[in-house]
Amino acid sequence: MALVEIQNLSTAVGDKQILKNINLSINPGETHVLMGPNGAGKSTLGYTLMGSPEYSVTGGKIVFDGEDITDSGADVRAKKGIFLSFQEPLEVPGVSLESFIRSSMQQVTGQKIKLMQFAKDLEKNMDFLKMAHSYAERDLNVGFSGGEKKKSEILQLLMLKPKFAILDETDSGLDVDACRIVSAGIAEYMKSCGGSLLIITHSTRILESLTVDHTHIMVKGNLVHSGDGTLIEKINREGFDQFIPQEVKDAERKEKLAAAAKAAMDAIKNSVKKEDILDK
Prior knowledge:
42% of the residues lie in helices and 25% in strands. The protein has eight helices and twelve strands.
């Protein structure tokens, strides 16, 4: 049975429809990679799966571990074992990284955390990620570099051990060395608890320590193509254009023409208004 079953999922933000009839199954222990041009809706899928209230499900459903969670809040989903690593991690003044992770573990598991074991595991994982132990006492992500923020996200992943992790462009802003460490941290998560991954990315550097089972391409809110790990190499060589359906290209062309026509009409109207003002 699939761990994550996305069935005809459509999502909107306000009045704007973004995701359109997405169907995707992720089995336990699998790594799926989601790629596509900017504005394709990739992050929207991640936030929708996590239950962000900003995104409204307008059709379809999300089944996790055999249970329909379409209407469940983000806290419920987190307790069931879903984790989202943010593209731009938030800074939380007044809450240390250590306290945040400990509190999160307690909330997710519903059990009291054994402090000595927690401290031991935290230090071990920080060493693995080459993070100075002093970061544990610092306010969550406050004053952290881009690389340390992303390591902080992976540290949370290693400590929480979710069943399903969504990583939203975790590699953005990382230099080569930091990206290699983060990639190794993700691989360690897979090795230690056999979870499932959905990695949203524009780059392939973060995948170097991982075995990719399935690759998906999203364009304009549609999943337009899927394949195995070798599809990533093809995308790197040839880009996304070959996978974009002609009807999507035609619709995008019409949108651009309509926008250009509107801009021209607005310019004419503004010009006429200026002339009227000058005549007066």
